[in-house]
């Protein structure tokens, strides 16, 4: 997986400020960061790279932070993959032989434009060189060729096995090498296995620092995820808290919020939200947070304005549950702004007439004309956005609608009266507009609306549009208008937008709950189908002639984003792609019959496209991995991983939680916190401490990496 940042144009000192979270294989060796120079007509040039090994990241448990020198990128060092070798010492009557069998290789670097390579292997020992045949267009070649070399006892020379990509016109490309210690092989007599290909580091390097430096913040989290049953007590305890709500005796959620630092609150909110989303309790969890914040809020104008757990959780909720909805509403408007590239400015102190050009053949535009034309452009964009939003009531995901309805209801109950008439609407817009739509307008790349950041001119248009949306979201309050008087030309559209937005929210929160299931299945923004048609499901396992009643006929549709099936083409029952992949991954983790290898290609004609083997029943050329990846997709609802991350966070708070329990129990005359398996504490805080104790013991007794536990490396990084 290779995420890429936006392009910063025409500068030698770029700033990105982008964050990524990458899921790595537990066996990864290093992480490389490449700085590229983008070219519109030719291939992008590589300026340099920073490579952080696993040892470097492990030596910085709190994260690696600082400037790192860019190093020159040598094609001979850009290697990947493994090679399968069988090595043995054969003792004869006349002499000893070193026998090297080159069996196969996997995951080789693609060096050719067709996305593959034409690999062959060169074996060198004691001045002699032998080569395998060339396997065309494959990154998973098989050779099954054996070479022999005369071996003298006590010889110190190493055996070198090199993989190369054959090229007809240009020079061959280096794919990696393995150096074998022959003296060690003398003692073992035979060795067979997969060897990781190493780069060729024999060349002299340029002095570091000549290519510039890259500032990074990288933290490696190496998590061992236990079987689901181990996390059930923690999940059940937290779910019970949410189901009981503010009437419950435990109050673990507010205690977690109180003890969580501001820096960690966003991560904790996201983990809790995903955990409860997977349990079907996202709305209940957010409702509990709404009630807690409303209970401690006395001033209506400060409601949901802080970085509380409620605000952070709601942000995460909208990004997880409402991203496709956001794309459907905002996508066309954002694309139009990028395509038009109009000069837009409302602040007279920032108007630059020279950037506008000429409105006619002879006369440049005046400042007043620039301001009026800019106002017209922004009014058009804002009007289009508000119209799209007004039409999107039924496109809004059901769980989002239900959550907003509950928020609207709670705020109206807490602040009744005519003077707070707009407050329930402002509570909804504080999340929908101020924390979701406006940030997406200002930085569309971060919300996957565009592949690149906007240039300076487009960024200014987006910023002004986002400000206008914020004014609409604030219900056109005088305080927001007074800050920037030059936004006044947009006020007629803003006032009209406030009325549209209130009407939209009224419809959004008034939809009956009995309609939720049907509306959840509606997909107005469906991607074009890749394949669709009838789907026959065999109902029975009986023998004999197949009758028509043995099959159930459904209509299915496969798109790049979803797989759906229904009784007729007109009816829809959608299962999101990530839900399918999530289910498949979870089913396969504990599959005792899981194959150890598979073919990443297809059997076309008379051979596999990946390794060119002609046996259709061949076991496979690439090892099977338990994680499912699709480009940059990762399972957004990995419940066990979320539970593990919550456990790790609570483990850091354990001392404070234990102190809090002792403080509370001292007043009630309770005894000490139970730590043995035979004791059953009744109060939730004591139960939580017991759960943490049991999970710590489970981790201590579980060997890392052994099934069904699954190590997961998370790499949050910032450039």
UniProtKB/TrEMBL annotation:
Q: What residue stretches are annotated with the Ras-GAP domain?
A: 264-474
One GO term (biological process) = intracellular signal transduction
Which Pfam families has this protein been placed in?
A: BTK, C2, RasGAP
CDD domains the UniProt entry points to:
C2B_RasA1_RasA4, RasGAP_RASA4
Q: Which InterPro entries match?
A: C2_dom (IPR000008), C2_domain_sf (IPR035892), PH-like_dom_sf (IPR011993), Ras_GTPase (IPR039360), RasGAP_CS (IPR023152), RasGAP_dom (IPR001936), Rho_GTPase_activation_prot (IPR008936), Znf_Btk_motif (IPR001562)
* Superkingdom to which the source organism belongs: Eukaryota
Please report the stretch or stretches of sequence annotated as the C2 domain.
1-68, 79-195
Q: Annotated region Disordered: where? A: 665-686, 699-719
Keyword field: GTPase activation, Metal-binding, Repeat, Zinc, Zinc-finger
Concerning Gene3D superfamilies, the annotation shows:
C2 domain, GTPase Activation - p120gap, domain 1, Pleckstrin-homology domain (PH domain)/Phosphotyrosine-binding domain (PTB)
GO molecular function, one example?
Answer: zinc ion binding
PANTHER family for the chain = RAS GTPASE-ACTIVATING PROTEIN 4-RELATED, RAS GTPASE-ACTIVATING PROTEINS
Write down what this protein is called: Ras GTPase-activating protein 4B
Query: Which source organism does the UniProt entry give?
Result: Equus caballus
Lineage of producing organism: Eukaryota, Metazoa, Chordata, Craniata, Vertebrata
């Amino acid at each position: 997986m290779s995420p890429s940042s936006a392009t910063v144009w025409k500068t030698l000192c770029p700033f990105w400020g982008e964050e990524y979270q990458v899921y790595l294989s537990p066996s990864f060796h290093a992480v490389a960061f490449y700085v590229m120079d983008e070219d519109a007509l030719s291939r992008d040039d590589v300026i340099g790279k920073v490579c952080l090994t696993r040892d470097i990241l492990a030596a910085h448990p709190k994260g690696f932070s600082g400037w790192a020198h860019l190093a020159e990128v040598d094609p001979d060092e850009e290697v990947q993959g493994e090679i399968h070798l069988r090595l043995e010492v054969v003792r004869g009557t006349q002499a000893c032989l070193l026998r090297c069998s080159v069996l196969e290789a996997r995951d080789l670097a693609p060096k050719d434009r067709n996305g593959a390579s034409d690999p062959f292997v060169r074996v060198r020992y004691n001045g002699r060189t032998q080569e395998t045949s060339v396997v065309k267009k494959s990154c998973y070649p098989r050779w099954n060729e054996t070479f022999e070399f005369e071996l003298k006892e006590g010889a110190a020379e190493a055996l070198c096995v090199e993989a190369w990509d054959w090229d007809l016109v240009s020079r061959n490309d280096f794919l990696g090498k393995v150096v074998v210690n022959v003296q060690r092989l003398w003692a073992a007599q035979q060795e067979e296995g997969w060897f990781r290909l190493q780069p060729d580091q024999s060349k002299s390097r340029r002095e570091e620092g000549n290519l510039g430096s890259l500032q990074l913040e990288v933290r490696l989290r190496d998590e061992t995820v236990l079987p689901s049953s181990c996390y059930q007590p923690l999940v059940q305890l937290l779910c019970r808290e949410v189901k009981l709500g503010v009437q419950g005796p435990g109050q673990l959620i507010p205690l977690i919020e109180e003890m969580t630092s501001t820096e960690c609150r966003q991560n904790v909110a996201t983990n809790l939200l995903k955990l409860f989303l997977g349990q079907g309790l996202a709305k209940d969890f957010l409702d509990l947070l709404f009630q807690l914040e409303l209970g401690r809020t006395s001033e209506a104008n400060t409601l949901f304005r802080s970085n509380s757990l409620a605000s952070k959780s709601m942000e995460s909720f909208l990004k997880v549950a409402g991203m496709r909805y956001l794309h459907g509403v905002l996508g066309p408007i954002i694309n139009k702004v990028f395509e038009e590239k109009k000069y837009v400015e409302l602040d007279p102190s920032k108007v630059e007439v020279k950037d506008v050009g000429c409105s006619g053949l002879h006369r440049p535009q005046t400042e007043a004309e620039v301001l009026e034309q800019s106002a017209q452009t922004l009014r058009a964009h804002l009007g289009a956005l508000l119209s799209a939003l007004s039409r999107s009531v039924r496109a809004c995901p059901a769980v989002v609608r239900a959550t907003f309805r509950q928020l609207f209801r709670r705020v109206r109950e807490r602040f009744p009266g005519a003077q707070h008439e707009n407050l329930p609407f402002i509570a909804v817009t504080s999340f929908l507009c101020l924390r979701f739509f406006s940030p997406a307008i200002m930085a569309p790349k971060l919300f996957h609306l565009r592949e690149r950041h906007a240039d300076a001119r487009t960024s200014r248009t987006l910023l002004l549009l986002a400000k206008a949306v914020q004014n609409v979201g604030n219900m056109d309050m005088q305080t927001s208008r007074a800050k920037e008087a030059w936004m006044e030309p947009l006020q007629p559209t803003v006032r009209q937008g406030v009325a549209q937005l209130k009407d939209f929210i009224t419809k959004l929160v008034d939809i009956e709950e009995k309609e939720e299931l049907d509306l959840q299945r509606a997909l107005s923004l469906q991607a074009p189908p890749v394949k669709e048609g009838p789907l026959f499901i065999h109902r029975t396992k009986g023998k004999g002639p197949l009758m028509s009643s043995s099959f159930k006929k459904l209509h299915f549709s496969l798109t790049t984003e979803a797989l759906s099936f229904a009784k007729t083409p007109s009816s829809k029952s959608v299962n999101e792609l990530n839900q399918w992949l999530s289910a498949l991954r979870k089913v396969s983790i504990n599959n005792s019959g899981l194959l150890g290898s598979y073919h990443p290609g297809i059997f076309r004609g008379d051979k596999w496209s990946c390794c060119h083997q002609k046996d259709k029943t061949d076991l496979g050329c690439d090892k099977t991995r338990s994680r499912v990846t699709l480009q940059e997709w990762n399972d957004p609802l990995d419940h066990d991983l979320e539970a593990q991350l919550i456990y790790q966070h609570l483990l850091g708070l354990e001392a404070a939680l234990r102190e809090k329990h002792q403080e509370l129990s001292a007043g009630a005359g309770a005894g000490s916190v139970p730590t043995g398996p035979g004791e059953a504490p009744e109060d939730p805080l004591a139960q939580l401490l017991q759960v943490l104790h049991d999970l710590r013991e489970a981790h201590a007794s579980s060997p890392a990496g052994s099934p069904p536990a699954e190590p997961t490396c998370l790499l949050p990084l910032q450039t």
